[in-house]
Structure formats: structure tokens, C-alpha cells
Design a protein that fits this description.
The complex is a heterotrimer of chains A (218), B (280) and C (67). Chain A is mainly alpha-helical. Chain A has one domain. Helices cover 65% and strands 9% of the residues of chain A. In chain A, strand 3 and strand 4 form a beta hairpin. Chain B has one domain. Chain B is globular. Chain B starts with a helix and ends with a helix. Chain C is built from two helices and no strands. Chain C has 67 residues and is an all-alpha fold. Classes of the chains: A mainly alpha (218), B mainly alpha (280), C mainly alpha (67). At the B-C interface, helix 3 and helix 10 of B face helix 1 and helix 2 of C.
Chain lengths: 218, 280, 67
């Protein structure tokens, strides 16, 4: 391991040439957390949202469409798997690729709801995620252009990656993990399926945590 | 060290009680006795418990267990001198559990609490400023290295005061009745904890007691240094009482003000860290 | 689950926690293993303990839970 006083001891490393996929104490924690929430997304049944009829005392529970939920669950599991990939990859390009996949599946989770407003919101997130992809891969390619390698293992502790590339990576991750945009819009109160919606936040926060580790390491 | 976890829970609950007592005295109320929160937790654990019909099972129960698990982990990270980055991860994962708590029940109040919890993830940004600042100053993110640095160079509280302020604000944003505790504002009943009652609520109280203990201990370790255990407890108590004063004197901010305020603080810190990085 | 199964879970997790504490005291390698064990069992222990003393051992009526 690269013996940096950042993320704790190395537990496991798998070499593919100069690309080394590794588990440190830090990434293992993130990995386990993501795994736990994938299992929850698989086994949990969605909550039934209660809503108050405006101006009255009446409370009703919303109907849940099984087909949509099946799609949402699939997307949530895919999102979790992409998060696992992003958390344990030891390569800037693979990290970017998995992060882009998280962006796509996040949109999928939201788009599984049969509601005009929610779909409209999903369209907006799609645009943000697409724009963010530019920064994400831009950051990775800048790192490749200046250092000649994408391996985090090789780059660790050398401080070769330019600050702009790091900024691009962070910007890209902030765009792909759509939790901050998602909560700022009213659509979140309309979308049912708590275990799947939670997966959006799990993946967004985990890739954010991972990118912080990367920019401190490289 | 494993045997310390139960005392830590009780001390954390006692700290919650002291927090309430100090706030009450400042506001000229008699206030509850300081062991009230311990009784509170026990009371909840004896109350009748079931699972709401609308709740998402097993997430509704699982999320309580996760809440306890992450702060148990944080307890070990702090006291084994582990990575500060890992502690930061726990702070973020706490946001996810708060969010999950609110979402899992199906109640609109819980859901609003959950949304506010993600919105106040902005309160974690000062923490990132803390981490970056500490890394710039000490050159390491392992808590053991940071305490060793302080033995040589003196406490970071005086050496890097703005970073300590950032960490202080993070702790403040996680205290009950504070200006930033928008997720448990009374207009949304109890926010994300509305539907977790009985045993589930008692479990959450245990998790939050550990949280308070870990946050205060981390602050003392990071900015004052390693102390004998009784001095450590006294230092934690002093930090807590200063927080109680702030909580007693400030009203709860509106959600957007809370986020704006925390973002401004982070911006100021970012400038400080950049200056520190360039000059130092 | 009934009261006996909660008690069983409480005892099992308590035994695991004590074993983990013992493993730390003899300095087991790797050092993170007992920590992970504690992180995973402590929440179960707390919740099972609370549910155990919460659970009633008489067959009661279904409580009135509101309209």
C-alpha cells in the first residue's frame, strides 16, 4: 500500500498490471455500508406513503404500482452495484465510469415513478448528470495527460495530478450524485419507494466520500 | 476498550441531560434532573412497541440498528487513533440513517424531517474544511498522529483556531435544540423520529448518546490533545456547556438560512485554508 | 418473536461481545476483527435486550390503536 497517513491500513489488493484494486479500512467500511443497503433494497417492501387531504382531517395511503416498483428496485440494485465498483476501483477511469453509471441509475430510480412532475424532474437531473460527465471524464483525462497513468496506486502521495483535474473530479461527482439537487425540488415528496430513494442518497454520499479520499491521495 | 461502550452510552445520555438542564436554567426554568435522559431511554424501552402498517419493513427496524452500529464504529475510530477521514465518513453515513429513518415510515412528517436532513448535509461541509485544514497543518489524518503533533507543537485550538471553529459548528449542528437542528423542528412534530416509538426510539437514544460522546471526545482529542480520562471528561463537559449556551440563546434558523449560514462559514474557511496552504 | 427468543438473541450477542472484549485483551491479530464484530453485534444486543424486557409473557388483547 502507499503508506499515506490518510485512510488506515491496507486490507487487500488485487493487481491487474499497474491498475491495483484495493481495499483499505476506509473503502471497506464504505463497501460494507453499500452492501447492507443493497440487501435492504432487495428484501424491503416499499413504505405506503400517507397523505393528508388538504383542509380536512382525512388521511389516505397512496396506491403503489407494482410494475413501477419492480423497475425501481432493479435500478436501485444496479445503482448499489455501481457504487460498490466506484468504491473499490483503484483507477481514475474506472472510478469515473462507475460514477457515471451511478448518475444514470439514479435517474432511473426517479423515472420509475408514474407521475408527470416526477418524470419532468428526472429529465432535469438527466441534463445535470450529462453535463457532469464532461467534468468527470475531463478530470480523469487531464490526470492521464499530465501523469501518463490513471492508477491511484501509482499516483498516490506524489502530488502529480494538477489541482484543476481534482476540481473537475469533485465537480463531476457532485453532478452525478444527484441527492443535493433531488432534495431541493418538491418532487421528492411525491416519489414513493423509501428503500430505493434511499439508495440515491447512499450512492451520492459514498461516491462523494470516495472522491475525497482520491483527491487527498493522488 | 470494548467494555467502555456501555459507560459511553450512559455518559452521553447524562450529557444530554446536562444540556437540557443548562438550557432550562438559562431560560429561567427549573428544567428536568440531569439523569432525565437516562430515565427517558429506559422509559421508551418499556413502552409498547409495534411496527406501523405503512412502514417499509425491514428497513424501519434495520435503520435503527445501523444508527447504533455506525456510532459504535466511530467510538472505536476515535479511541484507537484511527483515520479522521473514516470519522468523516461516519458523519456522512449518519445523514443517510437520518434520511432513512424519516423515509421508512411513510409519514409525511418523517418525510419532511428526512428531506431537511439531506438538505442540512451542508452542515458537513465545514467538517471537510476541518479535515483539509488539519491535513495542511499536521500532514496526517490519523488521530494518533494528530495527538502526537499536539504534544510537540501545542494544542491545535490555539494553533489553528478557525479550524476548531469549523468543527465546533459541526458539533453544534448535531446538538438537540440548537440553531441548526431543523430536522427535529416542532412544526414537523419530531421530524424524522416521529414514527419511531417505544424500543426503536430507545435504540435511537442510545445511538445519539454515543454520537454526542464521540463528537465531544473527537473535538477534545483533535484540538486540545490526549488527556487523562477525568480531564478529558471535564474538557468535554466544558465544550458541551458552551454549546448549551449557544443553543439556549439562539432561535432555530429556517432551513434555508441554516444551509446558507453553513455554506458561508465553509467559504470563509476555504479561503483560510488556501491562505494557510500557500503561506505555510 | 416471543420473549424467549429475544432472550436467546440477547444472551448470544452478549456472549459474542464478551468474547470480543477478551480477544482485545489478549491482543488478537488482526486488531480490526473484534471491532467489526462489536459494531455488528452491539446494535442487535441493544435492540434484543430492549425487546426482551418489553415483550409481555401473557397472551393479551389486541390493543386499541386509534381510529
Amino acid at each position: 500500500m502507499f503508506n499515506l497517513p490518510i485512510e488506515g491500513e491496507e486490507l487487500f489488493a488485487l493487481e491487474f498490471g499497474d491498475i491495483v484494486n484495493y481495499f483499505s479500512l476506509y473503502t471497506t467500511t464504505l463497501f460494507l455500508f453499500a452492501t447492507a443497503f443493497i440487501i435492504i433494497a432487495i428484501i424491503a417492501r416499499p413504505e405506503r406513503q400517507t397523505d393528508i387531504v388538504f383542509g380536512t382531517d382525512a388521511v389516505y395511503t397512496k396506491e403503489i404500482n407494482q410494475d413501477n416498483l419492480r423497475f425501481q428496485r432493479f435500478m436501485a440494485i444496479a445503482c448499489g452495484l455501481a457504487t460498490l465498483g466506484a468504491v473499490c476501483s483503484g483507477d481514475l477511469f474506472n472510478f469515473s465510469l462507475f460514477t457515471a453509471l451511478i448518475g444514470i441509475t439514479n435517474i432511473g430510480i426517479v423515472a420509475g415513478v408514474n407521475n408527470r412532475y416526477v418524470l419532468n424532474a428526472a429529465y432535469n437531473y438527466g441534463i445535470v448528470a450529462m453535463v457532469a460527465t464532461t467534468f468527470l471524464f475531463g478530470g480523469a483525462s487531464m490526470a492521464l495527460g499530465t501523469c501518463g497513468t490513471l492508477s491511484i496506486w501509482e499516483l498516490a502521495g506524489k502530488g502529480l495530478v494538477p489541482l484543476a483535474a481534482k476540481m473537475f473530479l469533485v465537480l463531476g461527482v457532485m453532478g452525478e450524485g444527484m441527492a443535493p439537487f433531488y432534495i431541493a425540488k418538491a418532487e421528492i415528496t411525491r416519489a414513493p419507494g423509501a428503500p430505493y430513494v434511499l439508495m440515491i442518497h447512499v450512492s451520492s454520499l459514498l461516491i462523494f466520500l470516495r472522491v475525497i479520499e482520491i483527491i487527498l491521495t493522488v | 476498550m470494548i467494555t467502555l461502550i456501555i459507560p459511553a452510552v450512559f455518559i452521553g445520555l447524562l450529557f444530554h441531560g446536562i444540556h437540557r438542564k443548562v438550557i432550562a436554567r438559562i431560560q429561567e426554568r427549573p428544567g428536568p434532573p440531569i439523569w432525565q435522559e437516562i430515565l427517558h431511554t429506559l422509559k421508551f424501552s418499556f413502552k409498547q412497541t409495534w411496527i406501523p402498517k405503512t412502514a417499509s419493513m425491514p428497513m424501519y427496524v434495520f435503520i435503527v440498528a445501523v444508527s447504533i452500529a455506525i456510532w459504535t464504529g466511530a467510538f472505536y475510530i476515535v479511541f484507537s487513533g484511527g483515520s479522521l477521514l473514516l470519522l468523516f465518513a461516519v458523519f456522512m453515513l449518519h445523514k443517510i440513517t437520518e434520511h432513512g429513518l424519516g423515509l421508512s415510515s411513510g409519514s409525511p412528517y418523517g418525510k419532511f424531517g428526512a428531506i431537511r436532513s439531506v438538505m442540512s448535509a451542508a452542515s458537513e461541509i465545514p467538517l471537510f474544511a476541518t479535515i483539509a485544514g488539519i491535513y495542511v497543518v499536521t500532514g496526517s489524518l490519523m488521530i494518533s498522529d494528530i495527538t502526537r503533533y499536539q504534544e510537540i507543537h501545542g494544542p491545535l485550538l490555539t494553533g489553528a483556531f478557525p479550524i476548531a471553529i469549523a468543527m465546533y459548528i459541526v458539533i453544534l449542528s448535531k446538538m438537540h435544540y440548537g440553531p441548526f437542528s431543523i430536522i427535529e423542528a416542532k412544526e414537523i412534530v419530531s421530524g424524522n423520529r416521529t414514527e419511531h416509538f417505544g424500543v426503536w426510539r430507545a435504540g435511537l437514544e442510545v445511538a445519539y448518546a454515543l454520537k454526542t460522546f464521540v463528537l465531544l471526545a473527537a473535538f477534545v482529542l483533535l484540538f486540545i490533545g490526549a488527556l487523562p480520562w477525568y480531564l478529558m471528561l471535564i474538557a468535554m463537559l466544558i465544550v458541551l456547556i458552551s454549546l448549551s449556551f449557544i443553543c439556549a440563546f439562539t432561535p432555530m434558523l429556517s432551513p434555508f438560512d441554516a444551509v446558507a449560514m453553513q455554506t458561508v462559514i465553509t467559504g470563509v474557511l476555504a479561503v483560510y485554508i488556501i491562505i494557510l496552504g500557500v503561506i505555510g | 418473536m416471543n420473549k424467549e427468543s429475544y432472550l436467546a438473541v440477547t444472551i448470544i450477542t452478549a456472549v459474542i461481545l464478551v468474547l470480543a472484549a477478551y480477544a482485545v485483551s489478549i491482543g488478537i491479530e488482526p486488531g480490526w476483527l473484534p471491532v467489526i464484530v462489536v459494531v455488528l453485534t452491539f446494535p442487535v444486543f441493544i435492540l434484543a435486550l430492549f425487546l426482551w424486557w418489553n415483550a409481555s409473557n401473557v397472551e393479551g388483547d389486541i390493543p386499541f390503536t386509534g381510529y
